[in-house]
Design goal:
With 607 residues, the protein is α+β, with helices and mostly antiparallel strands. The chain has 11 helices and 18 strands. α3 packs antiparallel against α5.
């Protein structure tokens, strides 16, 4: 019978894995673009643009609403001096934009723009780009974006998140184990339960203090700024953290009136469940579930995922404590281990279902596995698989412990005959815990061996669980794969293609270069702008400039861009490119009535 149950369990497990794999393939294959971190979608001026006149303001646009700070957009001139003339604000009231005015009298050269905003899910993101006035500087300004969060602040914030996860797991998991699996564990887990409460409370205070510098981009000294703390208490993540502290206080009062013990009444148990759900709900406002697609479903999925994680990992901790610290006369009964085994299986099922959904929502495509978020998710998945392998050994030892056969007693002879079985007056009556086959007698052969094996496998589960919590903390602070893939796609498919072709007519003063931009540089209609420079890098005017593009592989072209003189540059908006691939761009430059030259260069057009 035991073998049949094991075989059936394995078949169910294989079926669940197959269903999960099919769901993952369908969901990841049919995902729609969406993200939880803000992604830059455009700017005015465009990245890499060369302007003939200085702009009066800089505008950046994102794919979702963003929160602005005092220095969300910074602009530096070619000498790395700031040239902004005010604080950034949303352009025309649009929450997905940021605009900052510039000072007058801007000189020629390359300017760098750096931006830093808070996404809808309260995570900070940053980036940078450049544009030029007149002509690019000989030594262009750097475009490296500063870190969105100060490294020390980011470290403190990460530690706070990790301790919060650990404290939540101890609170919920230990309580569920003691109330559902083994009430006798209450004295053993009371101390770790209090430690979990303090860990969650103190980590929440740390997160509340560090949130201000995290959101504003200030350094670690910002933790002492009362204005930042005040602004945090008015923000959505700050309100969630204050609510968490209030719930923890209510939990402490509840336990003081009705101690954490077997005799807790039904009303106390219901109040405890509501408090646990409330605590889990305080994570959503500051995590990926609060933004992107299907927010209501994502919030519920995130809460279920956290609850299942807490029941499993916290319960493992309780089981480990019971196996190592239970008094010799009050051994952990095999029935309690079996109950936790069933509870853990239910938790794993919830984790698998919600994990598949959250993976689809965070990744969006198989290609997103190459992003940092995707790689971290793959590591977490591998760690969870290792936990399941260790759990399978635990289930094996649990089954062995429950079915350890008790040896038959040696018959005792009295006067040459067999003694009769003990009656009511001959000795103590054996209760259910002492019946053969229960494995509850610590002196039975094989019982202690099973317990040692169970201790080792549960310890392995708990150690891997610590790693899973660490990877979960990293995931919650990482840019989701959808956003990273969208950002990479934007970089791989720039808003314009810049091409510079040198020319030399052979006549005096007939040397220079022509700079050509195609926007967006993809299949379809493109805007073309062409500017000519002399040998010293200064702008020059030419009487005629013609541009054609040819695609030899498809035998298309030459397509005339039909450039027109725009008084300072040549341009058109009628060029239509029908195919992706490598095109040959030919520019015919005439510098005088008799001197002209045709030069060419390859340019790649994306789909």
């Amino acid at each position: 019978m035991a073998r049949q149950r094991t075989r059936q369990g394995r078949q169910v497990g294989r079926s669940l894995l197959a269903v999960a794999a099919i769901l993952a393939g369908v969901l990841l294959g049919g995902a729609a673009p969406a993200s939880a971190h803000a992604v830059l979608t455009g700017s005015d001026p465009r990245e890499g643009a060369v302007l003939q006149t200085a702009p009066k303001q800089i505008t950046v646009s994102f794919n979702e609403s963003v929160v602005l700070a005092e220095d969300s957009v910074r602009v530096l001139d070619p000498d790395s001096r700031p040239v902004t003339a005010g604080d950034p604000e949303h352009a025309d009231g649009k929450a997905d934009t940021a605009r900052v005015p510039l000072t007058g009298g801007l000189k020629k050269g390359t300017y760098s723009v750096s931006w830093r905003v808070l996404s809808e899910d309260s995570h900070a993101v940053s980036g940078a780009f450049t544009f030029s006035i007149g002509a690019p500087s000989q030594f262009g300004a750097g475009t490296a974006a500063e870190p969105a969060v100060d490294p020390v602040v980011d470290l403190l914030y990460g530690i706070g998140r990790y301790l919060a996860y650990a404290g939540l797991a101890l609170l919920i998991g230990l309580a569920v184990f003691a109330l559902v699996c083994w009430p006798g564990a209450t004295p053993l887990v009371h101390g770790p339960f209090r430690a979990g409460w303090w860990a969650l409370a103190l980590s929440t205070v740390v997160l509340l203090i560090v949130r201000g510098p995290y959101a504003s981009g200030a350094g670690v000294a910002g933790v002492f700024d009362p204005q930042l703390l005040l602004s945090t208490t008015k923000s959505r993540p700050g309100i969630a953290l204050l609510a968490r502290l209030a719930l923890l206080l209510l939990l402490a009062l509840l336990l003081r009136r009705a101690p954490f013990e077997r005799g807790a009444d039904r009303r106390t148990a219901v109040a405890g469940v509501l408090l646990a759900v409330g605590l889990v709900g305080t994570w959503a406002p500051a995590e990926h579930a609060s933004a992107g697609i299907q927010v209501p479903v994502a919030v519920v999925s995130s809460m279920l995922h956290l609850l299942a994680m807490a029941v499993w990992l916290g319960g493992l901790t309780a089981l480990l404590i019971a196996l190592y610290r239970a008094p010799a006369g009050d051994r952990l009964p095999p029935a309690a281990v079996a109950r936790f085994s069933r509870l853990a299986l239910a938790s794993v099922t919830v984790l698998a279902a919600t994990g598949v959904y959250q993976s689809w929502r965070g990744l969006g495509s198989w290609e997103a596995f190459t992003t940092p978020y995707g790689r971290t998710l793959a590591l977490k998945t591998g760690a969870v698989v290792l936990m399941l392998m260790a759990a399978s050994y635990s289930r094996h030892w649990t089954q062995q412990l429950r079915h350890v056969p008790r040896p038959e007693r040696e018959p005792v002879t009295v006067g040459g005959g067999q003694s009769p079985p003990p009656g009511p007056t001959d000795g103590p009556t054996r209760g259910p815990a002492d019946q053969p086959g229960t494995g509850s007698d610590p002196h039975e052969p094989g019982s202690e061996e099973c317990r040692r094996g169970l201790r080792r496998s549960v310890l392995a589960e708990a150690v891997i669980g610590v790693v899973v919590l660490m990877l979960t903390t990293v995931l919650t602070g990482s840019q989701p794969g959808r956003a990273a893939a969208a950002s990479a796609a934007a970089l791989g498919r720039p808003s314009l293609t810049l091409t510079v072709i040198p020319f030399d007519t052979g006549a005096p003063g007939g040397r220079g270069k022509v700079q050509i931009t195609l926007e967006p540089g993809r299949v379809g209609r493109n805007v073309v702008e062409a500017t000519t420079y002399g040998p010293d890098g200064s702008l020059i005017a030419v009487p005629e400039l013609r541009l054609t593009l040819t695609q030899s592989e498809q035998d298309v072209g030459p397509l005339d861009a039909e450039l027109a003189d725009q008084r300072g540059y040549w341009g058109s908006d009628t060029l239509n490119l029908p195919f992706a691939g490598t095109w040959t761009m030919r520019a015919t430059v005439r510098v005088s009535d008799t001197d002209q030259v045709t030069v060419e260069k390859s340019v790649k057009i994306t789909s």
